[in-house]
Amino acid sequence: MTSRSLIAALTSAALLVSPAPAAAQSPAAAQPTSPAPAQGSPPAGDKAEATDATAAAPDAASPAAEAPPPAPQKVDPGVFDKALKDYFDGKPRDAAGPLHAWLQAAPKTDENYAWGQYFLARSLIDLGLTHAGASYLARIARERSNPNALPRALDTLKALTDRPHDEVMIEEQVFGALDLGFLPEDTGAYVHYQQGLVDLRVGNERWANTHFAKLSETTAEASHAKFALLVTRLKQVKEPSDEIIADFLALSADEKLTREARNEAALAVARLRYERKDFQGALEAYDRVKLPELDPGRASLYLEEAWTRYKLGELRASLGILTTLDAPSFRDEFMPDKYLLRALIYRDLCHYLPAKRAAKELTRRFADSLEAVRNREDLTQDMRLRRAANAHGSTQRAARFLETLELEGERLGRYAGSFGDRLFSHLTKLYDLSRAEAVRVHDARLAEAVRQEADTLLRAAEQVRLMEYEVGLKLYERVKKGARIVAPEDEQLLSPTQTAYRFDGEYWNDELRSYRVRIDSRCIEETP
Q1: At CA 427, angle to CA 423 and CA 429, rounded to 5?
Q2: d(C-alpha 333, C-alpha 189), whole Å
Q3: HSE-CB of 74 using CA atoms within 13 angstroms
Q4: Residue 280: pLDDT band by 50, 70, 90 thresholds?
């Protein structure tokens, strides 16, 4: 099995799984309206006179002195109440502009200042501007000026972690730096879990255990913490013990975890058993992975199962899974090992010409990428390697967040008229700066991930070249006198509850794991 490193795959899964957040409110439909003019503002004529007086003040001899930034206009306190009414009436678009104007004028010591930030954040989230809303919620968490608004802000931030989000702002600067003494029990448990993960990332397992020890055994956070600790311990041992495998197996049946987390635990058991050459046990663990109904599944899961069946000598079942991987759902997946495994199966069945064609298919399909590697080109510009790097791990999270920022930046343009100049200008700057940082983070992660994918491709290509040489020798090998074809294996009969259909090129999601190939062995054996 030549897939990417076991430990790297498990680490990525461990530091990603998190408890299922509460569902966010759906955005309410509202017609765009301009925010109400602030009461108490000076008439237009007075404003013009004030501008003229200000312009005459600087010394005429001095070169164009910079004018001070305009002071925020005074806003009637009633604007806050009206904006709240608009929000609760399902009009977040009408509420956002006035709330921002009120926050610009109100002192930060105002008892409603944190609530203004909170409801502005909720308005922006309901309008699909989740990153902008998260930035206001993060301010509430950092300033901690209102102990009543803080738990609600943290719960909303917790819900946003289920979507692409700014990991540094939310997980490190907010949850990773909170004082836990004044938080409710449920919120405090999640914060302990996140702070423990931050400690694990930087290698402080003892500090992480301090946080994880405060989690109740009945919470989902405790189960997620166990999974993260198990993965961390795998890095410290050369040979995983039976106890570690048993702990992963127990987590795969823990109902407090999400289905995705349970599947990750089952995959960990399967991969560890495979490394220990317990192929039958690995196959049983793969069967524990439960996918949603009619879900096409994961290409990596099927490929790993195919390698496991190959090691068990179930060549026809393994070839059937490789047929599954030819489905349109997996057409763009980066799986150079698929062609190597197919060539190995044909070789073992002494179908040498199909084996040679399968081996050549790898170099043909990945010819452009292999040429780019040999020429030492910028591999991040190779679309096949780039797509493979963006398909998993931290690079995938960075790519999704960058895509979210670009989508929300385009969506922001719809609200230019109703938000007002100040809020629209502020959010435009926010998204521009956030996107620039997201591009930097993504590019850094992409460069390393692309290098790993290129290494995987080169290893598979090297094995395929050896395979072609070996098959070429077999093609011209003389058959000794008295040799005969190996007796065919007894075909496994179908049970009364099973039905077999001839494959006609159509792929159905509920049949993807049940394809089997009927192929006879052409190998010969020598008589004694």
Answers
A1: 120
A2: 38
A3: 6
A4: very high
d(CA 289, CA 264): 8
| Cα distances (Å, whole numbers) of residue 456 to 259, 331, 368, 378, 437 | 29, 18, 15, 17, 29
Torsional sign, CA 232, 14, 306, 252:
positive
Q: Over the stretch 413-472, which tens digit does the pLDDT of each residue have?
A: 999 888 989 999 999 999 999 999 999 999 999 999 999 999 999 999 999 999 888 888
| 122, 124, 129, 135 alpha-carbon torsion, rounded to 10° | -70
Dihedral angle, C-alpha 356, 359, 361, 362, nearest 10 °: -170
According to DSSP, residue 485 is labeled: E
SS3 15: coil
Give the pLDDT confidence of 124-141 residue by residue, as tens digits: 999 999 999 999 999 999
- Find out whether 307 and 341 touch, Cβ atoms under 8 Å: yes
pTM for this predicted structure:
0.78
> Are the C-beta atoms of 282 and 274 separated by less than 8 Å?
yes
Instruction: Report whether 118 contacts 398 (CB < 8 A).
Output: no
Q: Are 312 and 9 in contact (CB under 8 A)?
A: no
The Cα 304–Cα 114 span in angstroms is 51
CA distances from 389 to 363, 406, 517 (A): 19, 20, 32
List Cα–Cα distances, 162 to 17, 165, 222, 274, in angstroms: 10, 8, 18, 31
The more confidently predicted of residues 32 and 327 is 327
- Determine the residue type at 448: E
Closest to 455 in 3D by CA, of 358, 379, 395, 367 = 379
Distance CA 345, CA 338 (A): 11
